[in-house]
Amino acid sequence: MTIAQNPLLDFSDLPRFDLIQPDHVKPAIETLLTDGRALIERLTAESTPATWADFAGALSVGLEPFGRAWGVVGHLHSVNDVPAWREAYNEMLPEVSRFFSELGQNLKLFDKYRALKAGPEYETLSREQKKIVDNEIRDFRLSGAELPEEQKPRYQAIMEELSQLSAKFSENLLDATNAFAEIITDEAQLAGLPDYAKEAAREAAQKAGVDGWKFTLHAPSYGPVMQYADNRALRARLYRAYATRAAEFTDGSSKPEWDNTPIMNRILELRAEDAQMLGFNNFAEVSLQPKMADTPEQVQAFLRDMAAKAKPYAAKDIAELKAFARDELGLADFQPWDAAYVSEKLLQARYAFSEQEVKQYFTEPKVIAGLFKVIESLFTVKVKPDTAPVWDANVRFYRIETPAGELVGQFYMDLYARETKRGGAWMDEARARRRNGAGIQKPIAYLNCNFAPPVGGKPTTFTHDEVITLFHESGHGLHHLLTRGEELGVSGIHGVEWDAVELPSQFMENYCWEWEVLQDMTAHVDTGEPLPRALFDKMLAAKNFQSGMMAVRQIEFSLFDMQLHCDFDPKGPITVMDLVNTVRHEVAVLIPPEWHRFPNSFSHIFGGGYAAGYYSYKWAEVLSADAYAAFEEAGDPFDATVGKRFLDEILSMGGARPALESFRAFRGREPSVDALLRHSGMIAG
Ligand SMILES: [Zn+2]
């Protein structure tokens, strides 16, 4: 098959979005998979020397065309999800998944990487090349590749049982959530609820063939009731039902067979056995292997440090909330089901401003120009319009150049929501930077958002949250585009530990809170006036509303998760609930009722991939705030010296060295929680 016959196989430069059609997918991907398998066969042959050029480098470069072509297909599936593209994608997805799982289980590859590591060439490899070899060996080890043959069946059985248990955990939770319904027939009972929530409840009732309004435990129904319903008894009933999902109670609508308690215990037992077979002390150590944090002790110390500093602020938040409930709302006996409701009332009374008013100032051309100016000032580059074939007429394409006019990278910007585009905002890569013979292949990125398109000839306007989203995704984009990586496996975001991936993205968000930047980045859609200072001050006050309470809540979940996977014994006398209660008494300020069964619905760690990893949310916030504080300490958010150091030591480094080392190289010390606390209005400064 030639490029003329199939533009998906054209890797000469930019993807041919003007020519690629859904019926190109199957023949192109099948060809590339066949080529990929033949390559692996050849590279794992005994006659192939275990060297970088003959094996590891050849493998990575050899599989790149497949990665790029499948990347284009996945991208089109996300941004142009018409039936023909969905079908083309789904038809090949099982084939592609099978190929990846073959790769992950191919012990001949593992043997070659080990031979390369043990051989005389390893010490002469570049830092990037060594890191790629080490990462590959680590990942094979963590999937049990090194176990003695007689232990492999048991290991396989553990993995299978764990994946079944995780699925069962989520199913039980979903069944318990779905089983509950609260039908209200008297509209007076719904006082306080916004119209949209009532309308949704009305529709749900009609769908169920009942009169009145139907409320459920799903977030879009449950959330507004807890936040707005004046009816305290209604809030209390929904709270109890929500808190006891998939637990031993049957007074709500949960059934005994949906109780997640035995599943949690079994999952913890199996994870401990997994860790022990792989030669670790506990599962938390296994989880941290591919992450930035070194040890469970280090993570716990970080969480406790943060808790100790945030707790006085959390205590102040809860005291303010209770006083407001008592004095303004007549609720003397504050209960957990009052928390969201009273918070909303307090926010309106003390910190309210109109999101709609703010939105009038963030006109699209100003925001985009402001973003580019931030990037240009920080990293001494130029962002210029460029041209490329695109998948939608509204997609824009830009190039980043050095001041001397040398190309650094290119990116697509697809800002507007469409019916055929998946929700949310995300950055993806079209091509990664690498050495290519004598030259360098330049990186290309996709930035995708879901903002409202312009109407009526006026530019579209963004909410402040949308502007933050745009900066966030640009941070991921810069991580990919400003890399100096020369090897695919650690270039840009490749090989970056997942608790460090959000550092550049959250770092960029800080610029959306800089007065100097905002003045330059806003122009009222009708008057052209920049954002007024008084409105900005209200936005800042609202940003830090209850930040202490929110911080200790995240720390409570993180510390519980970490302890559960360290020295907790599921067969011992202390139960999962005992442990969560101990953690709560250490860090929380809002203690739920004794019957609250939070662990039974903690899907992140029992149904998803966050076991001994929940801390990473806070961890990434700490890192990005602390990185930004280096600019604050220099007295200028665009300080050239600090900007260059951030680029040199963090952004451009990609996955070439451990993220903690990169952070230390940038900051000259270990990460500190103080900057985040200060940015959230805790700790004066
Ligand atoms: Zn992100």
Q: What does it look like?
A:
- With 685 residues, the chain is α+β, with helices and mostly antiparallel strands.
- The chain folds into four domains: 7-146, Endopeptidase. Chain P, domain 1 (Glutathione S-transferase Yfyf (Class Pi), Chain A, domain 2, Up-down Bundle); 172-258, no CATH class; 281-352 and 544-685, Neurolysin, domain 3 (Orthogonal Bundle), CATH 1.10.1370.10; 361-524, Neurolysin, domain 3 (Orthogonal Bundle), CATH 1.10.1370.
- Helices cover 55% and strands 7% of the residues.
- The chain has 26 helices and nine strands.
- It has helices at 25-43, 52-79, 83-105, 107-118, 127-142, 152-179, 195-208, 219-228, 232-243, 261-277, 283-288, 296-329, 339-351, 355-359, 364-379, 464-481, 503-509, 515-521, 533-543, 547-564, 576-587, 603-606, 616-633, 640-651, 659-667, 674-679; strands at 182-184, 213-215, 382-385, 396-401, 407-416, 426-431, 434-436, 439-441, 444-451.
- The strands form three sheets. The protein has a five-stranded mixed β-sheet with strand order 3-4-5-9-6, with helices on both faces. It has a two-stranded antiparallel sheet with strand order 1-2.
- β4 (396-401) and β5 form a beta hairpin.
- α2 runs antiparallel to α3 (83-105).
- The longest helix is centred in the middle third of the chain and has 34 residues, at 296-329.
- It is globular, with a radius of gyration of 27 Å.
- The termini are far apart.
- Zinc ion is lined by residues 472, 476, 502, 505.
